Structures are given as structure tokens and as C-alpha cells.
């Protein structure tokens, strides 16, 4: 009896076959995956991934995931943050700051801002200054 005629051999080999979306399958981007959005997925630039651009992520607003060009963040342009108004994140041209209501650099009148060609500055012509009537 050949292997093609034996139901025992075809049944035993079926779960380990390499089809398009298998449990332990070898597709173009996945090593341990079942579909396109799997839990253990090695895509082009991901290691432990549930979607295309996240590393440790279960939904849109999770704790540790990577969006397009981020490392540890939630939103699009943040690094250590949970929502849009977090403390440590990078949005726009800032290095530490996320949005308008953050502690380290956020918008035009911040205390420590690294935007454009300034080092510690909030406006264009000031060196150590947070707003118009501040102490430093």
C-alpha cells in the first residue's frame, strides 16, 4: 500500500502540512501563525506581533506595542505613553512631550522644548524661558 492510499499517513501528516494559513506554517511572513493577524507572528519588521505593525499588542490602545515608527507607545508618534496627552513621548518636533497638556515639552509655551533649532527654548529668541513673564 502506498502513502497516498493509506488514510493513517495522510491523516497524521495533515496538521503539519504547509498550506496558506496553518498552525505551524511557513508562509512568506510568518513562522508560528494561523492567519494574517496572529499572536506569534514574525512579519517583516515584527517579532511578537498580533497585527502588522505591533509587537506586544492585543487591541488599539494597549500598554506595550509599537506603531509605525515607535518603540514603546500607544499612539502614532509617542514612545512612552498611553494616550495623546502623556508625559514621555515624541510628537511633532519634540523629544520629550506628547501633546498640549504634558509636563516636558508639548506646544508653543512649554518649559523644556527642543523644537526646530533650539536647545532649551520655548520661543524663537529666548534661551532659558518658558513664556513671556517667567523667571528663567
Which tags fit this structure?
136 residues; 1 helix; little secondary structure
Fold topology:
Layout: H1 7-13
What does this structure look like?
The protein is largely without helices or strands. 5% of the residues lie in helices and 0% in strands.
> From N to C, what is the helix and strand string?
H
Instruction: Give the strand tally.
Output: 0
Task: Please give the share of residues in helix.
Answer: under 10%
Strand content: under 5%
Structural class: little secondary structure
Radius of gyration: 25 Å
- Overall pLDDT score: 44
Uncertain runs with pLDDT below 50, 5 residues or more?
5-131
Largest sheet: none
Oligomer: single chain
First-to-last CA distance: 90 Å
Shape: rod-shaped
Output the number of helix runs. Answer: 1
Quick structural overview:
This protein is mostly loops. The protein contains one helix and no strands. The chain is rod-shaped, with a radius of gyration of 25 Å.
